[in-house]
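User: Predict the full complex structure for these chains.
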Amino acid sequence: MRYKIIIEYDGTPFVGWQRQDNGLSVQECIETAIESLFQEKPTLFGAGRTDSGVHATGQVAHFDITTKELDTYSIKTGLNHYLKIYPISILDVTEVDAKFHSRFDATERKYLYRIINRTSPLSIEKGRAWLVMKDLNLEKMQACIPIIEGKHDFTTFRSVNCQSKSPIKTLNSCKITRQDDNIYFGFVAPSFLQHQIRSIVGTLKMVGEELWDVERFKEALEAKDRSKCGALAPADGLYFMEVSY
Amino acid sequence: MRYKIIIEYDGTPFVGWQRQDNGLSVQECIETAIESLFQEKPTLFGAGRTDSGVHATGQVAHFDITTKELDTYSIKTGLNHYLKIYPISILDVTEVDAKFHSRFDATERKYLYRIINRTSPLSIEKGRAWLVMKDLNLEKMQACIPIIEGKHDFTTFRSVNCQSKSPIKTLNSCKITRQDDNIYFGFVAPSFLQHQIRSIVGTLKMVGEELWDVERFKEALEAKDRSKCGALAPADGLYFMEVSY
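Assistant: Here is the predicted structure of the two-chain assembly.
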């Protein structure tokens, strides 16, 4: 039986989604919980490999169970029971076709980046947003949207360690909105390169601070050169929101 | 010189606003920061005495400085520097008249209580909302609003340790709204009794769960009897939002 799960987590204490030797990952925590519940060692496939510190409100993953049968409600409450010491929450469990693949079948991924733009440090929202003290010009950042929407070579906005075969990606949409001190950057695409959103937001922030003009942002993308990226926004403000199939 | 400050804090690690012998308070942290900045021992007067675990996005306080003079921007950044190990942020500093009193001059206080109504545990919002798993009936909770708005004897919804002279308070307004899984309870009044909001929300939740009907909520208020209170909502979901003068 194959199960699809939707997962929310606070990325702060983890090395990221994926299992690594240097610390605790979200994947390892959930795999251990599945093993505790089913007495069967699973492999969990996630739709997106979030970095250390990146949060999720709608990560999707799947795993197979060959022995024990449990209804989806019992799986959800059982996994949440075994996960309770971690800031990981299983929001939903469904049975899916044995051909379903959380990563390869995903047609669209949605991310949100959150900046808090004010001159005072964060307290309640510490670790949950990027604090930018210099006043950001929303209109200038929004003027960059048409430059990055659509199909482009995103080499400039891609980690040197990115394992994607191609740097060419299609950004379906980018939206930038402000609500009081909060600036939200919404990104939708079939898939993203490693550090793509954090690189774009870090560079948009330089445009917002008026250290860069819109033209320079355009030139940076067109340069297809990682060294032309403005800055890498911290993981704290990034949320993996939703996966469509 | 008298200064008015606006303060945001995550209440989780504190024994509450007010100095106490049994642990660290927000007041003590800020008084220590003021002393570090001015080399003068201040007394800080807060507009509201939030309990342990209660958050603030707009607590107001004042203090006097007789020796050193600093501009308000330097006070704000200086205090935030000394407070940086704590989840406390000074949002604003202004010079005020020597007669201004943060507590006694307040004409209106605004609080927000936040419930997350879903069957999965909290992760990102842990400590920042009350998780209620049973589906809440918004309309039935809203039907209780006319019962508590206005001037009433709130003995039922008041801590037995409350030090207010009178249990009679005027609740200017109560608003209950839902946004996805979030249920927000907004309260505005000149002043509140100890545990008043948490007692009201805890009891409204029983109406929302349909364990109580609206009539019983009305009878509870009218009983003027603490033992008739439904439940006390946890501190995690309560935010002290704003003070008007």
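The first helix of chain A runs from residue 26 to 38.
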